[in-house]
Amino acid sequence: MRTAYSVSAVRAAEQELMARLPEGALMQRAAAGLAVACAELLGRVYGSRVVLLVGSGDNGGDALYAGARLARRGAGVVAVLLSPERAHAGGLAALRAAGGRVSADPLRDIGRADLVMDGIVGIGGRGGLRPEAARLAGAAREAAIVVAVDLPSGVDADTGEVPGDAVRADATVTFGAYKPGLLIDPARERAGALRLVDIGLRPPATADVEALQHADVAELLPRPAAESDKYRRGVVGVVAGSARYPGAAVLAVAGALRGGAGAVRYVGPAADAVLARFPETLVHTGPPGKAGRVQSWVIGPGLGDESDGLEDVLSADVPVLVDADGLRFLTPDQVRRRAAGTLLTPHAGEAAALLGRGREEVEAARLDSVRELAGRYGATVLLKGSTTLVADPAAGVPVRANPTGTGWLATAGSGDVLSGLTGALLAAGLAPRDAGSVGAYLHGLAARHAAGPRGEPIVASEVAGALGAAWENVVS
Questions:
Q1: 299 labelled as ligand-binding?
Q2: pLDDT in tens, 433-442
Q3: I need a labelling partner for 423 at 20 to 30 A (CA). Which of 18, 175, 276, 300 fits?
Q4: What is its EC number (predicted)?
Q5: Per the annotation, does 385 bind a ligand?
Q6: Is 308 annotated for ligand binding?
């Protein structure tokens, strides 16, 4: 599992470590790891051309010391000093001693570079890049491999927000611990491939943000035992679809069945469409409370303007997932008085409506938005998007960022598949936070599998069909 920590937590851990180490040792550890990562990206260090974009803080010092190491291995290293009078003195001296030099023509040197190191701003930076830095970063992006030092300059390390111009890196070498902004869009897409360098930090026991990996998901996945029957595996109730949107019901049922449910009980007007595609579905005319035994409910996909069944589902003493149109009729009081778990799964537009703000505000501040929604409704919230986030309403619980998302999921009906899949995981006994995290992970893997190695366009039904392959990929 990747765990990410706030700037204040990282700073505290650094101070504790520096008190036990010789002066400058921590920066040398970071520079050594950075130089190794850059050498691997270059392939051949001797004769390569490296440009350092150097700001005024320790981030620039890391770049200068790493550049000195590359220069000693035969690279031609040039430093572009954005604040010459404030450049790290020790790092600059080391670079010059190794044969590096300070650029007299930054744009020319960047245009000739094989690799550019972004050491402009560190994790304490706030706001976007200044115009000159933005101009140089843009030139670097056009000319060479760009490696960000600790995180791309111009992004917010704590939130993943990008308030202005920012570096867009091919890779980010981060030190000691991941920072939340490296795992959350819009900053995440600017970080490129991530590499963590161990410098001996001891971060707190509880992270701010975490991202599951294969081993974590495999441990959480429910598996039927020899004595399992359909009830032990979990029965999902699905209230979805309408005369206008019958396909939403089909896709939600598909997600639930492909997600390992022992059975699916469908309630709604799209029974004929559901049975035509999945004859194993148990259908009922409603209301949901009369449909029979379930271990979880999913309500909302494709309901249109009909809110029938919402109060009935919310009164059930089983976990409930509310998605799509179901969210439009939901109030915080309805959710807070429930004893069983509740999982809300809005996209940015739906989250904006629930919070009473613009969609662009939610997309720009995804971490704050998902935390606020979870607190307001007293429910687990899965905020869909380029980085799907899952927040628990309890204070101090890390938000989970899903690492498997892909732009191919931006297709009609994919959220309906995710709802059914996650409902199956709830029915199997996973807590809402785990069900949402595992569901998002498998959903992303399935989309990648369906799109294939070349990334071909897909439709939601293909995502549902690829869930088995995603499951196998995790457990194999």
A1: no
A2: 999 999 999 9
A3: 276
A4: 4.2.1.136, 5.1.99.6
A5: yes
A6: no
Residue 413 annotated as binding site? no
Return all residues near 97 (Cβ < 8 A) that are at least 6 apart. 68
My answer on whether omega of the bond before 203 falls inside 30° of 0, hence cis, is: no
Using DSSP's 3-state secondary structure scheme, residue 329 falls into coil
C-alpha separations of 456 from 406, 450, 462 in Å = 12, 8, 12
| Annotated binding-site residue? 200 | no
Is 405 flagged in the annotation as binding? no
How far is the first Cα of the chain from the last one, in angstroms, to the nearest whole number? 18
Residue among 264, 246, 170 at smallest CA distance from 413: 246
Whether 161 contacts 148, CB under 8 Å:
no
* Structure confidence at residue 367 (pLDDT): 96
Please indicate if the annotation marks 347 as binding a ligand: yes
Q: Is 124 annotated as a binding residue?
A: yes
Q: Tell me: is residue 74 an annotated ligand-binding position.
A: no
3-class DSSP state of 306: coil
Distance CA 474, CA 463 (A): 16
Instruction: State pLDDT tens for residues 95-133.
Output: 999 999 999 999 999 999 999 999 999 898 888 999 999
Residue 367 in tokens: 């971490």
How far CA 255 is from CA of 226, 259, 279, 463, in Å, comes to 24, 6, 15, 9
236 strand-pairing partners: 264, 296
From 333, 340, 286, select the one nearest 315 (Cα to Cα).
Answer: 340
Task: Provide the H-helix boundaries in 228-322.
Answer: 230-233, 246-258, 271-277, 310-314
For the record, the structure tokens of 174 come out as: 């981060």
